[in-house]
């Protein structure tokens, strides 16, 4: 049972609109492409702030803070409905949660070893693969190819002396998990009302990652200032973007969602410059132009067909 009644947008005690209803109304007023863009900015800001925490905590402990904070916030706002779930619902919810845990863990390990823009560029191979597999129009292949060219330019191929190959391996695993996340989040949106599927998945994710995060974090994990920063990272990286993406996936095709996510490396590179002082080369700016062009092109074609 959810914390907010889906058929009653008002609190019976005060007569005021419920917070969940207000959030859903606000989300419904934004085009799905706008929801995806807001989610991208939010998650990359969260990743930038999380990387700042690596000086005090190992990546696995930061992942635990992020996911635990997100699960706590989502669980307090939206209680997942467990009664009456079919075994397929359980499978989707648990699979979604495990995928979230692994995806965040391996991505943060990549982020600790690579510049933010490069890590996200390599990770993007996952959703790019979803876009290619789901495409049914030739024009979509053009945008995917242009985005792929941007990924190749952003990735540090040919610079083996300065490349951390463990970081690249972690980023590639994160990309595979990201592809699974796109498919499972869409399935969860169809099987769970509102954001209850997200809440269920985040609780599962927190349970999965807790043993690793608590063990590696040690006593430093419980410092009040780190817990507060972790709460902010959880909001930016989990609660806000995942909620926006679930709403967007209900209103747009998966392949269009996957192509729009090509903005991730560009936004990550910009956040890397602004937050982490990870300055870019001309080749990387050229990659950003390719990726932005692909995203804008796919959005225009999608809108014209509608």
From TrEMBL:
<protein>
    <submittedName>
        <fullName>DMT family transporter</fullName>
    </submittedName>
</protein>
<keyword id="KW-1133">Transmembrane helix</keyword>
<feature type="transmembrane region" description="Helical">
    <location>
        <begin position="226"/>
        <end position="244"/>
    </location>
</feature>
<feature type="transmembrane region" description="Helical">
    <location>
        <begin position="56"/>
        <end position="78"/>
    </location>
</feature>
<feature type="transmembrane region" description="Helical">
    <location>
        <begin position="256"/>
        <end position="276"/>
    </location>
</feature>
<feature type="transmembrane region" description="Helical">
    <location>
        <begin position="282"/>
        <end position="301"/>
    </location>
</feature>
<keyword id="KW-0472">Membrane</keyword>
<feature type="domain" description="EamA">
    <location>
        <begin position="166"/>
        <end position="297"/>
    </location>
</feature>
<dbReference type="InterPro" id="IPR037185">
    <property type="entry name" value="EmrE-like"/>
</dbReference>
<dbReference type="GO" id="GO:0016020">
    <property type="term" value="C:membrane"/>
</dbReference>
<dbReference type="InterPro" id="IPR000620">
    <property type="entry name" value="EamA_dom"/>
</dbReference>
<dbReference type="Pfam" id="PF00892">
    <property type="entry name" value="EamA"/>
</dbReference>
<keyword id="KW-0812">Transmembrane</keyword>
<feature type="transmembrane region" description="Helical">
    <location>
        <begin position="141"/>
        <end position="159"/>
    </location>
</feature>
<dbReference type="InterPro" id="IPR050638">
    <property type="entry name" value="AA-Vitamin_Transporters"/>
</dbReference>
<comment type="similarity">
    <text>Belongs to the EamA transporter family.</text>
</comment>
<feature type="transmembrane region" description="Helical">
    <location>
        <begin position="165"/>
        <end position="184"/>
    </location>
</feature>
<feature type="transmembrane region" description="Helical">
    <location>
        <begin position="114"/>
        <end position="134"/>
    </location>
</feature>
<feature type="transmembrane region" description="Helical">
    <location>
        <begin position="90"/>
        <end position="108"/>
    </location>
</feature>
<feature type="transmembrane region" description="Helical">
    <location>
        <begin position="196"/>
        <end position="214"/>
    </location>
</feature>
């Amino acid at each position: 049972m959810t914390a907010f009644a889906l058929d009653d947008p008002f609190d019976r005690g005060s007569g005021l609109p419920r917070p969940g209803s207000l959030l859903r109304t606000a989300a419904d007023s934004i085009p799905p492409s706008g929801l995806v863009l807001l989610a991208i900015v939010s998650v990359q800001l969260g990743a930038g702030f999380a990387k700042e925490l690596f000086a005090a905590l190992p990546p696995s402990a930061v992942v635990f803070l992020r996911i635990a904070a997100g699960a706590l916030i989502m669980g307090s706002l939206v209680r997942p409905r467990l009664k009456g779930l079919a075994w397929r619902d359980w499978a989707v919810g648990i699979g979604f949660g495990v995928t979230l845990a692994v995806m965040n863990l391996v991505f943060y390990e990549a982020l600790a070893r690579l510049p933010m823009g490069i890590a996200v560029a390599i990770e993007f191979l996952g959703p790019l693969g979803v876009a290619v597999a789901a495409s049914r129009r030739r024009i979509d292949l053009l945008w995917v190819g242009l985005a792929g060219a941007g990924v190749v330019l952003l990735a540090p191929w040919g610079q083996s002396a300065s490349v951390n190959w463990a970081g690249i391996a972690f980023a590639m695993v994160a990309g595979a998990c990201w592809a699974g996340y796109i498919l499972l989040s869409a399935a969860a949106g169809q099987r769970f009302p509102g954001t209850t599927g997200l809440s269920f998945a985040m609780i599962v994710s927190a349970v999965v990652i807790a043993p690793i995060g608590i063990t590696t974090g040690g006593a430093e994990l419980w410092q009040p200032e780190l817990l507060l920063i972790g709460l902010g990272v959880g909001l930016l990286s989990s609660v806000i973007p995942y909620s926006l993406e679930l709403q967007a996936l209900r209103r747009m095709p998966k392949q269009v969602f996957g192509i729009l996510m090509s903005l991730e490396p560009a936004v990550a590179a910009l956040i890397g410059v602004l937050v982490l002082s990870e300055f870019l080369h001309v080749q990387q700016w050229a990659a950003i132009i390719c990726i932005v062009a692909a995203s804008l092109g796919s959005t225009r074609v999608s809108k014209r067909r509608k």
